[in-house]
Amino acid sequence: MWGRPPASSTPLDGVDVVLADLDGVVYAGSGAIPHAVESLNRAAEGRRLGFITNNASRTDASVAAHLSELGLSTRADEVVTSPQAAMTLLAALVPPGSTVLIVGGEGLVVEVEKAGFVVTRSADDNPAAVVQGFAPDVAWVHLAEAAFALKTPIEEGGIPWIATNTDWTIPQSRGIAPGNGTLVSAVHTAVGRLATVAGKPEIPIFREAVARFAASAPLFIGDRLDTDIKGAVAADMRSVLVLTGIDRPKHVLAAPPDSRPDFIVGDLRELFEPYPPTVVKGARTTVGKATVEIDGADLRIVSEGDRPIDLVRAGAAAVWDSGRAIFGFRMPERLYADPFFRP
Q1: Are residues 254 and 180 in the same domain?
Q2: pTM summary value
Q3: Residue 288 placed within a domain
Q4: Which domain range does residue 147 map to?
Q5: 176 pLDDT band (50/70/90 cuts)?
Q6: Which of the following is catalytic: 13, 16, 21, 262?
Q7: Active-site residue 228, yes or no?
Q8: Scanning 39, 74, 251, 267, which has its CA 20 to 30 A from the CA of 336?
Q9: pLDDT band at 6 (very low <50, low <70, confident <90, very high)
């Protein structure tokens, strides 16, 4: 990790490639998140812009078309998907041309066929592996076929099982919906096995993106601590958590060491603002005009400051630097108030 940024620098300083998650960062459902499109277009001035998504339901071409409709001129090869990362794993596990049982939609099927494998939906076809990804129309019958194909434990000669991702939830225009992690968990409950995961927070999808864009100083933008930020940390990539998707201020305060972003922003306009330094004096932590203080088991607000995001930053820095878990503190609800956009 790059460590804390120098005073007065913006999150974009020194960055050659901006890599953004999609759901919860650029859009929620089909609609753009406020300020996302114009901010990313501005970020692309003088640096490359790419996208990384765990959502396996659509092809890279369809994602690029959607982004272009929203105002982000994007080519298919500028979208890195979890099915693409899954194919890298699959190629190392089964022979070329093998039959593979697919649970998922077009985004996954297209990548499987592009990689030279044969797609089946039935366990009766003796597949060499199961690859599971999200699609809105995945039903019980598809999960059951995966379970039938995976009934033999791997240590007894069973076939590999790859999940494109295990996001528990996915932002939609109507709210938060179950993600692929819930579907993978259903199969896991039936067969008592764990899948190998290709997408975030695993490293392969980040390595694919770095290689594709020839990035030397990338910045990753995500809305989830457990997948986006944890993956960026594991990949030694500087990261931004934007509070327009899944994770909220209370999750930020409780973030474990392996899932802490370098920057926290309320929306993507803040990518261009000088990021205020964290100043620690004794038991007090100040970011901008917001100050919090640790007093034994209490985390108190000394000054709320003039920007809610700075209070979140100060509270997070105080908790993280203390080395104590969030449940070791009493804190006012105001510290994790949530005036930020949510899908």
Answers
A1: no
A2: 0.88
A3: yes
A4: 83-197
A5: confident
A6: 21
A7: no
A8: 39
A9: low
